Amino acid sequence: MLDLNVGKIPVGFFPDQQKGNVRYGVMTQAKPTFGALHEPARAASALGLSDENLMSGAGPKTVSTSLPYCAAPLRSLEVLGRLQKIPQSEATAYLATMGARFFYCMARVPGQPDVWQAYMQFYNGEDPATGSAAGCAIAYLVEHSLAGSGRQIHIRQGVEIGRASDLYVSAKGTANGIEEVQVGGSTVPVAKGLVFLERFT
């Protein structure tokens, strides 16, 4: 159980979802809240794109399961690949007016209806995997009927920086809205070290 600012968040580990020697965990996030629906041209401009680059019929929207993101489906993987040049100062200023902290951009992988690729730039870097944003993304996709209720979706992130990560997400659409937002995956160690502190007298 994670004791976070948003409340207690359960994480389960299931033997049947273990991949090799890597343990697979599934986090059940807080019930999502949906904020502002963004005007496509303004959102696209903040991303350094045009509104023609956004997915038709699926406007960017602020979504939060703890931290508010602007979920922004794009027209294609080619468009997604351009986002290494997001004008960060303009994007930050725009998002502040829309109740969001960061953009979470995604595009469907051709020929694979349950696979999406995502990009999340923050400050001066790119995050290879963002669990909090992935929860917002699946809540958005289910709300807009771009993903089936309760159906697991595979989100690939970090591809452009050579740190491809795999997130497995699902959410259920109910009479009370979107619920049971689950984000699963595993981690692997990438570095270890020792820190030596000088003794103070």
Report on the structure:
It is built from four helices and 14 strands. The chain is of the alpha+beta class and 201 residues long. A ten-stranded mixed β-sheet has the order 3-4-14-13-12-9-8-7-6-5, sandwiched between helices. The mean pLDDT is 91.
State the main characteristics.
alpha+beta; 10-stranded mixed beta sheet; 201 residues; two-stranded antiparallel sheet; Diaminopimelate Epimerase, Chain A, domain 1; 17% helix; single chain
Provide a quick synopsis of the model.
The protein is α+β, with helices and mostly antiparallel strands and 201 residues long. The protein has helices spanning 40-46, 77-81, 88-96, 131-143; strands at residues 2-4, 7-9, 11-13, 25-28, 33-37, 61-64, 68-73, 102-108, 115-119, 121-122, 125-126, 153-157, 165-174, 177-185.
